[in-house]
Amino acid sequence: MSDPSLAVPDVASVPAPGSLRRLLRNPLGVAAIGWLALVLVSALLASWLSPYDPDEPAARDILAGPGSAHLLGADGSGRDILSRLLHASQISVAGAALTLLVAAVIGIGAGLLAGYYGGWTETAGTWVASLIMALPGIVALLAVRAVVGPSLWTTMAIFGVLLSPAFYRVVHAAVSGVRNELYVDAARVSGLSDPRIIGRHVLTVVRAPAIILAAGVGSAAIALQSGITFLGLGDPSVPTWGGMLNDAFANIYTAPVALAWPSLAIGVTCVALTLLSNALRDALERTAEPAPTRHDADDEHAAPPAPSGGEALLEVRDLVVAYRRPDGSARRVVDEVSLSVREGEVHGLVGESGSGKTQTAFSILRLLPAGARTSGSIVFDGTELTGLPAKRLTRLRGDAIAYIPQEPMSNLDPSFTVGSQLVEPIRTHRGYGRAQARARALELLDRVGIPDPERTFRAYPHEISGGMAQRVLIAGAVACEPKLLIADEPTTALDVTVQAEVLDLLRDLRDDLGMGVLLVTHDFGVVADLCDRVSVMRHGRVVETGPVDALFAAPQHPYTRALFDAVIATGEPAGSPQDGADA
Amino acid sequence: MYRFIARRLGSGVVLIAALATLTFFLLYLGAGDRIARQLLGEDADDAAVRAKEHELGLDRPIWTQFGHWASGAVHGDLGTSWFNGQDVRTAILSRLSVTVTLVIGSTLLTVVLATVLGVVAATRGGWVDRVVQFLGVLGHAVPNFLISLGLVTLFAISLHWFRPTGYVRFADSPQLWLSSITLPVLALTINGVSGVVQQVRGSVLDELGRDYVRTLRSRGLPESRVVYRHVLRNAAGPALSFLGVQVVGLLGGAVIIEQVFAIPGLGQVAVTATGQGDIPLVMGLVVVSAVLVVLVNLLVDLVQGWLNPKVRLG
């Protein structure tokens, strides 16, 4: 059964017109539907299809094997297995339908009320749901069975009550998600009654998750019904798959084949319902999970060793970064970019959101997201990085080439202390002992201007401020005195006053360590403050590059001029800081 | 941290009390006057039925009955069986260890296997991932008693590797004990792993996409360290919550599986008591199950707190 808590309420999960077609394109989904249709047909036509009376024992046929008299053999009382199987499918289908109906009516009804009105209905509903879910379903059912007797229908109805929290939770989450959406507010303001709003606007949100869940609940219902009857707690006068299994299990040594038929009926039906639920999820929600691939971007081809460019620390030539579109074509987000960074030089990489500047920075570190394909040449300190074995590149990262991210809080591991995150790379690269690495980390925290290094060392990321976190990340980046520092919008997420301090710190560190810096930014103020040279990127290409003074004095490219104008007009740089996300 | 534990424990006790109260009224009101007749047999005369009801205390007002039961229960006295007069607590405790052994064994195996498979599926991708996902769906969908029957048929009856049914106590023969619980534990584990592995895979994929992972990689940490030390620890939270749900499921699964393997655990008591309408015993089983569930959830919360510094403060 699918776990209801995993379902994400999402307006986009409203069934789209093409969802049926998508469902029918999924081979597993089609196979599942086919089997379920078969079960349904045999349930409806059982009386006509059955060769024998399912309840009529024949002494001479006891445990008869499959053959011409009995296609699938006969059971321990000499009853025809095929006929019983067909008749039992009626019970299974009707029982599952009853469970589903009860669970859906109670769960969806309560979920709508609690989600739409909130308040005490919400508190009560959620509490009752957790109460019901606090017992293993089978224990609760056995308890009920003790007082109501062996009626299968009562059992299935009660099971519906026990499963209703699954519907409740999904519906409640979906509805409370849209409760305050604008279109629901608008409907309320325009005087529509609550039932009509629920009917028209809210139910559409609930439809897809409820359908998906229904298939899973059906599977659970069949499994449980079979389980109860297999335990011998069902009504012995009705043929059921579980009851047949019980009979076959009793004769497992003499007629093991008889075990196969009810097992197949139960197993395949449960699997079919689960597969149908998964196929429905794919078809209705269209949120195909990202397929995991190796994180290292594939190098399309390793460039020939480039002639070392003399004094340049980093020499990027004709770098291309491309992603495959769903239709198979490639989209270039970085297109033949070339740039160089000298020792001790700060090279600014500017451009609006989506211009490819962050992608360029990540490809130097080989930290592009899965699915990226790169080509071109990246020579660092005389070493060609493209095609370098992953092990050797890992050794360079954090040691000779370091990285400062944009958003400080999300770039620290929330589960480890600041100190342990600083110490770990130092020990990896320098082979220091615990105490030595700790001393180095404290020294670094002091160097980046953290007032109480001991305290910050022991703190968890959520216990320090954003500005502090960025200082910690800078400390981590320069821990091994790198030759090249790649900083991706290092001040964007910070307060203005903190920004200036961090820029000062970066300048100091550059002077102290003589690092080359590749500074990704959209902020011309930062460029003017810190950079020696600058490259302007647009649509994945470098449109202009040169010394900062010259570029500011006389921008050549119309795009550069437009960027300047935008800064002057609004006082704000063009583009958002979210370069990496959508590039 | 202590306040956190105390609060969780408090809400657990409230939950058990509420569940016990609800179940009591459902069972005792639902039983009505049918029960005494059922115990005596259909042809018992009315006078005998009245006498039996008086003996069991069923002729008293329901509130009096509940007060009597509850005051006993808080002192650990769960009453006596209507069927054979045995003390309910003794009857349950003598079987509890077998079921708990099954559940703990399969939980430990589930944790190890689901973690390894989930991480491998998430990091390797490709066909490994697809195979793990498909087996996950399959193992989750097929009811556990079917899996048990398959295991018995294959390993016990066809291959004779294990004894098909029966239980040997550890004290009697550790070797036979291991042999007798291997198949049941395996059957429960297949169900457990199938559910949890999908959760682990999803959580690991989520974490792999986070910013801090990129930063850790940029620091030159080996990939294995990034995945097994950092990603796994952060991915453990959601996976653990799901494991808690799954352990409750394993407890329910054990009830059915014990029947297949003829293991004298809580499941056997439950099925017998249910068939006989032995309400005090059923009542005791519900309470004990609820206590186990609360304990499992408390344990999950403790591990969460240990793994995640934010939960610890909360």
Automatic annotation (TrEMBL), chain A:
Disordered as annotated region, ranges: 287-310
Domain ABC transmembrane type-1 as annotated: residue spans: 89-277
Protein name: ATP-binding cassette domain-containing protein
Chief location category: membrane
Organism name: Actinomadura rayongensis
Keywords for this protein: ATP-binding, Cell membrane, Membrane, Nucleotide-binding, Transmembrane, Transmembrane helix, Transport
Localization (cell): Cell membrane; Membrane
One Gene Ontology term of the molecular function aspect: ATP binding
Annotated coiled-coil segments of the chain: none
Biological process according to GO: peptide transport; transmembrane transport
Entry membrane topology: Multi-pass membrane protein; Peripheral membrane protein
Transmembrane segments annotated in the record for this chain: 28-49, 91-117, 124-146, 152-171, 210-233, 253-276
Biased composition (Basic and acidic residues): 287-302
From TrEMBL, chain B:
Main location: membrane
Statement: the UniProt record of this protein carries the keyword Zinc: no
UniProt subcellular location: Cell membrane
Domain ABC transmembrane type-1, residue spans: 96-304
Bilayer disposition of the protein: Multi-pass membrane protein
Membrane-spanning intervals of the chain: 12-31, 98-122, 134-157, 177-197, 239-261, 281-303
The keyword Transmembrane helix is annotated on this UniProt entry: yes
Alphabetical UniProt keywords: Cell membrane, Membrane, Transmembrane, Transmembrane helix, Transport
Cellular component terms (Gene Ontology): plasma membrane
GO annotation, biological process: transmembrane transport
CDD domains named among the record's database cross-references: TM_PBP2
InterPro entries referenced in this protein's UniProt entry, alphabetically: BPD_transp_1_N (IPR045621), MetI-like (IPR000515), MetI-like_sf (IPR035906)
Family: Belongs to the binding-protein-dependent transport system permease family.
Name this protein carries in UniProt: ABC transporter permease subunit
Organism: Actinomadura rayongensis
